[in-house]
Please model this.
Amino acid sequence: MTDFTELVDLAAERVGGAVLYANDDFFAPKENLLKASAPVFLEGKYTDRGKWMDGWESRRRRTPGFDWCIIRLGLPGRLRGVVVDTAFFKGNYPEQCSLEACAVDGQPTIEQLLDEAIEWREVLPVSDLRGDSQNPFPIADTERATHLRFKIYPDGGVARLRVYGEVVPDRARTAAARGGRIDLAAVESGGLVLACSDMFFGHRHNLIMPGRAANMSDGWETKRRRGPGHDWVVIKLGARGRIHQVEVDTSHFKGNFPESCSLEGADAPTVGDAGALANLAWTEILPRTKLQAHTRHHFTDELRHAPGALTHVRFNIYPDGGVSRLRLYGSVEEE
Model:
């Protein structure tokens, strides 16, 4: 795939994404489009409307035009690419697709989003699709988006739509909700896990996702280490800030939690990608501290506050294992 798929899926159900409206979903419901699971095909399964398909599928169009749906992003942000997955749609996939975006404050209703007053901008021009394939399209859009209008030409089915980008949060609202303190690492705050030593069993982005982990698969987990060393992740904070409290949640990890962990920080506002991490100078924030199985650990007095304002952290686990969530509560510093 392409580099943009290393970013966060802004439209994922787990972060609040939803398909709000579709002009037609006769054969397969619009809600399938953002399902977290990979699409499947069930041979011989039919409904009273036709073959059961794991995706969004409109009826055969007999008039000029196209089919379309409106998507609310779970996390507002700048789009960097989409993957239009037509898995198992072979004789019934759309010939082409396009994508438009808009930014609307608050919680607009479907009626408001359908109003002609909404200013949609094209972020992906009409592009050819292949059937039964993952179709990646890079996007270079500099504006913030909250909603998308996804068009398929002329009709047909799409299994999944993944929308990758950089989160652009409403930081003032988030901070006010926590009395002026926010989780600086959280994906909804704009945090991003830039790199990790390993993520064989659980993806690194799980570490900063909203809410509690649903099960062991919903955390960051490395393979069993057979040599010296330890595993780690590097997180770019959503905003430059001071960390006042750390939560390390090992929920669901019982026979595979790390023996201990530590946390380091760096102040490097110009470092935005994994390629420049080797140049960072790390300062200890939380010294190596023992962990317990299936436990939410809260560290405040244990922190060393000397580092001051930070832009990046390196979370180390010894020697390996799994962590459900990492929360770094703190205050935002002025840029």
